[in-house]
Specification:
Length: 250
């Protein structure tokens, strides 16, 4: 079982997320356990203060270290997390490989910041991984935390109905996924590529690989720098660069 402990000022945001779809199924099956910890509960003053003005001036308020330290220390008395993740726009870009790595853990903590962030002593003392969903800023780390949880939980054994589908998804092998179709074979004048109706598994696999290469080359060429490409893949990409699209229509 993989346990998630989310430190947040807004645990109510996670209630519908925890009780819906695959995330709920994963909890019901015992694959994962999800807990929200409101670190405001660990503030000791009469007003339960969790923020203050930053030293040196500047706009906005900063999360104080004391409540977060106390919340993490209380958690550590019960178990030792394998990793403590901080959701921050300053972090490392989140990748599928990171989701796969986290899915092998037993206990993860996710820190959700707010306001202008948190006192850096929290990061210095506790954080093992700083994670960013992209080069943009949100009002808090809760949505980013949900994205990480979702991407990790679906990788746990038996959570998805068809584990084989994981191997074909975008980013799983460094490429974007090929296009997919279902019935009807013709819809509003648009036909499914004939190769998918041929029953020839070798040709279907070849077409899907070519489509993955094309989509990645067209939309995310940066991914090709790190993808595991065969010599045949490189030949196909060279054809694309020359404007040769033969075989793509199936």
């Amino acid at each position: 079982m993989l346990k998630f402990h989310v430190l947040t000022l807004f645990p109510e945001l996670f209630t519908p997320f925890f009780e819906t779809s695959i995330i709920k199924r994963a909890q019901d099956s015992g694959a994962t356990q999800l807990q929200c910890i409101n670190f405001r509960d660990y503030a000791t003053d009469r007003h339960r203060t969790v923020d203050d003005y930053p030293f040196g001036g500047g706009a906005g308020m900063l999360l104080k270290p004391e409540p977060i330290f106390r919340a993490l220390e209380a958690l550590q008395e019960r178990e030792t997390p394998d990793a403590i993740l901080l959701m921050t726009p300053q972090g490392k870009p989140y990748r599928q490989s990171m989701a796969q790595e986290f899915s092998q853990k037993k206990s993860l903590v996710i820190l959700c910041g707010h306001y202008e962030g948190m006192d850096d002593r929290v990061r210095q003392t506790w954080v093992t991984d700083e994670i960013s969903l992209g080069d943009f800023v949100m009002t808090g780390g809760e949505i980013a935390a949900m994205a990480v949880i979702d991407s990790v939980v679906r990788l746990l054994p038996s959570v998805l109905g068809n584990q084989e589908s994981l191997a074909e998804e975008s980013h799983s092998h460094g490429l974007l996924e090929y296009p997919q179709y279902t019935r009807p074979a013709v819809f509003r004048g648009i036909s499914v590529p004939p190769v998918l109706l041929s029953g020839h598994h070798g040709k279907i696999a070849e077409w899907r690989r070519m489509q993955s290469l094309y989509r990645t080359w067209k939309r995310r060429p940066d991914m090709l720098l790190h993808a595991n490409l065969s010599e045949a893949d490189r030949v196909v990409i060279q054809r694309f660069e020359k404007g040769d699209w033969s075989g793509l229509d199936g």
